[in-house]
Amino acid sequence: MADVNTAKEYGDHAAHSLGDAVTHVDVVGDEVVVYTTRDSLIKVLTFLRDDVNSQYKQLMDVCGVDYPERQERFDVVYNLLSLTQNSRVRVKVSTDENSPVPSATGIFSSAGWWEREAWDMYGIYFSGNPDLRRILTDYGFEGHPLRKDFPLTGYVEIRYDDELKRVVYEPVKLTQDFRSFDFLSPWEGAERVLPADEKNRDA
Description:
This protein has helices spanning 4-18, 41-50, 111-122, 197-202, and strands at residues 22-28, 31-36, 58-66, 74-82, 87-95, 101-102, 126-127, 156-161, 166-171. The protein has 203 residues and is an alpha/beta fold. It has a single domain (4-202), classed as 2-Layer Sandwich (Beta Polymerase, domain 2). Strands 1-2-5-4-3 form a five-stranded mixed sheet. A two-stranded parallel ribbon has the order 6-7. A two-stranded antiparallel ribbon has the order 8-9.
């Protein structure tokens, strides 16, 4: 969009054209953000791709956001680009751990990779994705590492066992090395005498 006013006009156009498929529209900066539901997601994405005033024909990214305090803890965010209009639009839909989001692979072929990443990192399920499997973590990985409740240490650690000649999975072990403080080191506890300090001592 050229400016905020143009973005607002397009947001109104999209909301009017899509009706109940759009819950509301925001303008953040100079970009339109369209909020929809899982049931209306495919309709909204198809409109944004095919509408003559939209032509958002490139899906640049699909990502997840985790809000664990909400009942529907995840937002799925679709970032679309229109080269014709020289603008971007963002589509957001919320879901929980058990409710699938319709796959956008039938509209944008690139969605397959992004949806696999969202599944791998957040555990967001996309119904209709023909190849929904992990893409960044290992096949035996437990959990989804970008969830806010995922422990920083993970659940297992992986190492190569030279005796077994294979990779093995083991419970995480956190070892705290014994720290010996040398107070005679130049960095800790050293007594520094500055010029004229002897005057203060005499006093």
